[in-house]
Fold this protein.
Amino acid sequence: MKNLIILLLISMVIVSCSGKKEQYALRGNITGMDTGMVFLQKFTGDQWVKLDSARLDQGAFLFKGKIGMAELWYVALKDKQVFVPVFVEPGKIDLQIFSDSADKSVITGSESHGIYRQYIDLTNGINEKMEVVYKDWKRARDAHDSVAMKKADSISALLDQEMKQQLVQFVTAQSGSVVAPYIVMRNSWQFELPDLEAIVVKFDTSLNASPYTQMIKARIDILKKVAIGEVAPDFTQNDTTGKPIALSSFKGKVVLVDFWASWCAPCRSENPNIVKVYEKYHKLGFDILGCSFDQDRDKWVRAIRHDHLAWAQVSDLKGWGNAAGKLYGINSIPANVLLDKDQRIIARNLRGDDLIRELAGIFGNVAEKKNR
């Protein structure tokens, strides 16, 4: 009993400490900007929130306040369109900012930011390779060179996998730092449900109070509801004419729910493949419901016509705030879910040959019989 009481007291102290806020002082100097306003803000995932503001005095500024667990905030020079990320935590933090480039900024005094900087430096090489591949892909697209586009897509997929491995290794090594859940949260689009569950259990329990850990756990809850084998959540949105269309109205067909947007280059690149499978299997009981992350109706409609998308298309024209996208945990496009006739999810994020093989497995025998 005595040991139990001691354990309870210890747990109370831990909880109390985790919620304690301490003083921080964020002192900065901006080269190339003597006067004007500087803002301290954070991004909540949906919107920017202003936390404080200061007027420059010969290029210098100071923010003071209290904070509990470290968070990534931004020092913003809005006139210059410069946003400098910094992990703010208790203590004195110094910033040297260059108004012509946020990348040159030097930040000292924040242990968490030092760890974050290590991750950025680690991934710089892959990011540079990604930029080269994307430029190659754009040139191939403009030249209508499908072979070169496919090659660039393959290289990009390999680089994505390499980056994912680096990320997992890094956050596992830094499992006691708040930087770990932040990095996973920002890159959660790379992970399916089992991956996220395996990563989050490695975090130190002290990180449970972090908003980034809470965001990951919220995403896990969403992904559980749209996991393979689950009945697809129903939703209703308007088509291009304003007519409401419900996903449930497709029951009895094999349906691909395709999340895309007119401005999404990889989505537009995948559309010819989706057109091909639609034309091949539509008469056999296959259908598609396109759900767009557009905000501009005219651009959405033009893309539908240009890409010859003959199936139903819906959108609430809220961009990344699309309600159906949130329901399915979509934070990267193109994305899709494939449903059986009872609207159970049988596959996710099928692209290219993977989509062709999956539908051939479902409809192949039927197609052969019809052709006899």
User: Anything to note?
Assistant: The radius of gyration is 25 Å.
